[in-house]
Amino acid sequence: MGFSLKLKTKSGQQHIVSKLAETTTVGDLKTRIVELTNIPGDALHVVLGFPPFKPLDLSNEANQVLASGISNGDTLIVEEKSLTEEERKQLEATKRLEQDEKLAKELAAQGTESGGILLKCVVPSDNSCLFTSIGYVITGKVDPDGAQYMRQIIASTVNGDKHEYNEGILGRPNDEYCAWILQPESWGGAIEVSILSAYYGLEFDVVDITNAIINRFGEDKNYGMRGFLLFDGIHYDPLYLESTNGDAPKTIFPIEDQSVYQQAEQLAKEAKSARQYTDVNKFTLKCIDCDCFLKGQVEAQQHAQKTGHVNFGEV
């Protein structure tokens, strides 16, 4: 015989959990509550809604609900318990690990190594190419509007750890850097890739065709998955695997999939041989602060030292 329960949240929302059975376990009920309230399972705090209030033990998910003192028609009060910063970080890390493992299994089942060609997806040259490229790796879509969100992530991370991100690392005072990276004219580089790698729990392998090498960001974190970015000395583009058997393009790969990494290495060598990179001593930049044009990285650095201007755009 089935039974139902009522849920009330701290915000006043009410839900009905119906079609429960005598064999329904605490784990089953917990899953239903998470679906209805969007409260993470590890942050759930549930009590029976009648005096004296009795917390529901969610730790033993194999127990049957009826054995926990719950009866048909009872009201459960659901709250989201506060987590310490350490607990929150641990929860996020666990979720990322679970997602990585799930995605790794899915990709392995799809046969990533069975065939495909690593190709470049061209993104706009608008000073946010790094962020747009990382967004493509994460979502599979070219969305320049997502760049500002990543800039905010970086600024928040840097501002939150001024010991780690000091002037020696950033090349400028911490507060000045945070204001600078939020500007749409500011370019991203190694520091920004490293921060976003940690934020997304994903290794980013930057294929540097200027030197025909691959720089791995997050390699020491033992992430289960990786994405690839192509860097020509000034501009970033994401790489994706075009399947030879009609499957959808892939942008994230298991670390152990060496066939894709080898393709990336070969791509770097071939692109360098074909000189498909930007000579940083010859390309033209425009100073956003005073509208003057500069040739090469050296002139830009000299101009910055002389004027204090640090905002440059691609021409």
UniProtKB/TrEMBL annotation:
Lineage: superkingdom: Eukaryota
Biological function: Hydrolase that can remove conjugated ubiquitin from proteins and may therefore play an important regulatory role at the level of protein turnover by preventing degradation.
Cellular compartments annotated: Cytoplasm
Protein name: Ubiquitin thioesterase OTU
Gene3D superfamilies per record: 3.90.70.80, Phosphatidylinositol 3-kinase Catalytic Subunit, Chain A, domain 1 (3.10.20.90)
Keywords, alphabetical: Cytoplasm, Hydrolase, Metal-binding, Protease, Thiol protease, Ubl conjugation pathway, Zinc, Zinc-finger
Keyword field contains Cytoplasm: yes
Signal peptide, first to last residue: none
Residue ranges annotated for the OTU domain, each copy included: 118-242
Gene Ontology MF term list: cysteine-type deubiquitinase activity; zinc ion binding
Reaction catalyzed: Thiol-dependent hydrolysis of ester, thioester, amide, peptide and isopeptide bonds formed by the C-terminal Gly of ubiquitin (a 76-residue protein attached to proteins as an intracellular targeting signal)
CC annotations in GO: cytosol; nucleus
GO biological process, one term: endoplasmic reticulum unfolded protein response
Pfam families: OTU1_UBXL, zf-C2H2_OTU1_C
E.C. designation(s): 3.4.19.12
Organism expressing this protein natively: Anopheles melas
EC class name: hydrolase
InterPro entries, per database record: OTU1_Ubl, OTU_dom, Papain-like_cys_pep_sf, Ubiquitin-like_domsf, Znf-C2H2_OTU1-like_C
